[in-house]
Amino acid sequence: xxxxxxxxxxxxxxxxxxxxxxxxxxxxxxxxxxxxxxxxxxxxxxxxxxxxxxxxxxxxxxxxxxxxxxxxxxxxxxxxxxxxxxx
Length: 87
Description:
By secondary structure, the chain is an all-alpha fold.
């Protein structure tokens, strides 16, 4: 982490915080990149910790409720929530 921090001119603490985000479920990362995170989900909340299990992440971070509401409203879900995995 020291080398990575030095190469990017940031602190080791920053690298440690950001690396944790790599363990988020792919669909949660995609939602973040699209700016479609639940309104109550903040970076502070993510930094507080989250489960490694992706299904548990969705439940804890409010994504399972979003999917349920979308299905109930008839809104189509993403065709492929993870473009790295082909159906």
